[in-house]
Specification:
By secondary structure, the protein is α+β, with helices and mostly antiparallel strands.
Length: 201
């Protein structure tokens, strides 16, 4: 009996020693961060957006003749002003932006009629973009001039450029930019108020 017990003990001991040691499973690789989705808007869509957002194709307006010196001086002043505005808009600095508006324009900008018209323009632009992307546009309602600044001015007016100007009166100027198709677009109507150029439309 003692011999049989010893043999059983040895057999159990050998079986335990021959069992392979469990192998550690390698840790799963860390999940890779998802790459940001880049939406590319075709150039022709961008141009349509630019026009429908805020710029208007030039229409006939009566102008006055001024000296070449006054034209060049005013052109230089407005190019500097628009450059300053671009930086303010890129910084999303609403109070500073308001400082470049005439009081009358700022008051009109906060009227229901103005905001409803701009809401319609914004929705048309969003529909164009959504259609190009195969999506459905959601209507965004502008209720204040700050909404107008956030949703229309910031996306479209941070890289403006003055390509030409026309004097409507001695102290009122219309500034133009030229798009990629050569269209002359109205950038701003400005007026010299208290020695400073202010946007009046």
């Amino acid at each position: 009996m003692r011999l049989i017990g010893s043999l059983l003990f040895i057999a159990v001991l050998l079986s335990c020693q021959s069992a392979p040691a469990p192998q550690e499973q390698p840790a799963p690789p860390p999940p890779q961060p998802a790459e940001p989705q880049v939406i590319i808007i075709p150039e022709e869509i961008e141009e349509i957006i630019e026009i429908t957002e805020i710029l208007e194709i030039e229409e006939y307006v009566e102008t006055v003749e001024v000296s070449e010196e006054l034209y060049q001086t005013t052109m230089a002043e407005l190019q500097v002003l628009i450059g300053e505005l671009n930086g303010i808009i890129r910084a999303r600095n609403y109070p500073a932006w308001v400082g470049y508006l005439s009081e009358a324009y700022y008051a009109r900008m906060n009227t229901r009629e103005f905001l409803e018209e701009r809401t319609d323009e914004l929705f048309r632009r969003d529909q164009i973009v959504a259609a190009a992307m195969g999506r459905t546009a959601q209507r965004r309602v502008l209720r204040t001039s700050r909404d107008y600044f956030e949703h229309i001015v910031i996306p479209s007016r941070s890289n403006d450029r003055v390509d030409d100007i026309a004097f409507i009166t001695d102290n009122q100027v219309r500034a133009y930019t030229i798009d990629n198709r050569g269209n002359l677009l109205i950038l701003y109507d400005l007026e010299l108020i208290g020695g400073n150029w202010r946007i009046v439309n």
